Amino acid sequence: MSFERQMRYISLSRRNSLLCGSHDGAERTALIYSLACSCRLNGINTFEYFTDVLNRLAYLNPNAPDEVFRELLPNRWMKK
Fold it and tell me: Residue ranges of the chain with pLDDT lower than 50?
């Protein structure tokens, strides 16, 4: 995927951020767009990724080591 095409998603997210309602909402939206673009770059189905990660997070201990959470990033994620 070309860099210009990736920039298109960032441009769309910037325009959509105007409708987030607050600065915190815009930051959360940017985080989600960033993860979605990372999925595209790594050839991962975005819906499957978010579904799997949210299901795993529901059962993780909030005090788990950082490495456990790093395994959930798109570049290290493995579908179970």
Answer: none
